[in-house]
Amino acid sequence: MADSPKVSVIIPVYNAVDHLPECLQSIADQTIGFANIEVVAVDDGSTDGSGALLDAWAERYPGRIRVTHQANSGAPGGPRNRAIEMAEGEFLFFADPDDYLGGEALARMVAAAERNDSDVVLGKIKGVGRKAPVTPFRENVEGGDVFTTKAVWTLTAHKIFRRSLVMEHGLRFAEGLRLAEEQVFIVPAYLLARSISVVSDYDCYYLVRRDDFPHLTQQAPDPVAFYDNVRDVLNIVTAHVPPGEQRNTLLYRWLTLEVLGRFGNGFAGLPQETRAHHMRLADELLRDFFPEELVSQLPPLASLRCLLISEGRLEQLTALTTLVPKPKPKSKPELKAKPEPPTDATPKPVPAVVGTRVNVRPVRGRSALTRILAVGRRRIRGRGADLVPGAATEPVRLP
After folding, report:
1. Parallel, antiparallel, or unpaired for β 91-94 and 160-162?
2. By mean pLDDT, which of 2-16, 177-191, 212-226, 351-365 is the weakest?
3. Which pTM value belongs to this model?
4. Pick from 198, 27, 15, 29: which is nearest to 111 by CA?
5. How far is CA 105 from CA 33, 96, 102, in A?
6. Which helix H or strand E contains 12, and what residues bound it?
């Protein structure tokens, strides 16, 4: 190409023929100008016509869309890495074929990068039928760092990265991994960047839930590959950030989301051997990376999860994962004032308002939590008096 493009938009594609046109059109319509963009698309062994569709777009926009085809790799990390080697833009942006960009996204993010000498720019992500990160996008940031931007609370690849940073440090995605494969690329980029900027006042990227398009993030990961990848990421964090409050601020994210996040509502439905494997591997991470002062900052039930993991109490841990907080009572409509009670009437005590955290207090010599766990264990075993063995059950709710 005669002139290097300003931005290389990298798209790993597998069986997305119904959604690719919207994604590609959103890139072609960018206000930065299609002349300043190249699309590098890797067809990862699609069988639904996605490869032919990409080739047709490449013929329609010669020099702007580059396509390569390969055998299916099973995950987006490999195709993204191949596209990185092909890309020629000053900046890299990673998109998924079932999502799309806001019209001014690349212009705004590139401007922020050039204005602040930023190596990474976070553009606001908008969820369409699914959740999107909120914490890093509360305000614009002109040239911050991983701490001031709270960037670790968005670790998907949908961001601008200066290509020189990526090539200088050999940053690449984990290959063959179906969950969190971006983190070994994103986290060192955050830590090595000269500065990080945030564009929060414009919806740059639309993260779309497609009922006909299976997301790898919704699939249960292989425990060994998943925890090995988390370990690699935590090693990167601890190598770059010394022990103390700043490191703990970062580690809190992995403790709550990656480690304890494996022990949610779906945990009880896993085979016993798989549950035991998760518990053992999580325990190794807890011992190796998360200090006691960090664990002590967790809410009570999260702290209890850590304790049960460390003590190897699989049955109790499984029971605990069936619990969900009792929903807050809905506010009642305002009632008309009632007549005043007689002056000699003794007013009844007003119950305290229940907070969002669960406070478990002993009740008649036996803790409320013990009773809850007992109910949970009965549900897991399927032997409760009010249960049909083998029948699906609702999560236990806290009193």
Report:
1. antiparallel
2. 351-365
3. 0.80
4. 198
5. 11, 15, 5
6. strand 7-13
